[in-house]
């Protein structure tokens, strides 16, 4: 069973979960961690280690962090080097997590991660350039096409 741990700076992780649940309904296989000003790096590492160490025997954690090079990702990377029993992906955004959660249990961890990373990358679009490429304008009736 896949279990998603959303680990971010501040309360962003909790907001992601609330937003995902608004769109996709209540999720039981999602946890979160928020790095705050009150937590030292050691405290954060301990908390994350307890979350990751508390997994059930049939669970595989997929950890999603917000910023490559940020403190949360760096701490998770340290834990990955120590524990080596979860996947760590950074650059979290809403299309990524929605895609991953909605893939279902029948999809492998590898395919779930691949689909999530693709959704994140494909969701970054400069709309002005898209409108120009489709010869639309902000004033015309316009439907954005994939």
List its traits.
146 residues; alpha/beta; four-stranded parallel beta sheet; 6 helices; 4 strands
Task: Describe what you observe in this structure.
The model has no long low-confidence stretch (mean pLDDT 92). The protein has helices at 12-24, 41-53, 71-83, 94-102, 109-122, 127-133, and strands at 2-9, 30-35, 60-65, 86-90. It is built from 6 helices and 4 strands; from the N terminus they run E-H-E-H-E-H-E-H-H-H. The protein is of the alpha/beta class and 146 residues long. It is globular and about 55 Å long. Strand 1, helix 1 and strand 2 (30-35) form a beta-alpha-beta unit.
In order across it, which strands form the biggest sheet? 2-1-3-4
Beta fraction of the residues?
15-25%
Number of helices: 6
| Mean pLDDT score | 92
Which stretches are poorly predicted, pLDDT < 50 over at least 5 residues?
none
- Supply the helix-strand structural class: alpha/beta
Q: How do the SSEs run, as a string of H and E?
A: EHEHEHEHHH
Question: What is the global morphology?
Answer: globular
Main sheet summary: 4 strands, parallel
How many individual β-strands?
A: 4
Q: Please report the distance between the alpha carbons of the first and last residues.
A: 32 Å
Helix content: 40-55%
Radius of gyration using CA atoms only: 17 Å
Secondary structure layout plus pairing:
Elements: E1 2-9, H1 12-24, E2 30-35, H2 41-53, E3 60-65, H3 71-83, E4 86-90, H4 94-102, H5 109-122, H6 127-133
Parallel strand pairs: 1-2, 1-3, 3-4
Helix pairs in contact: 1-4, 2-3, 4-5
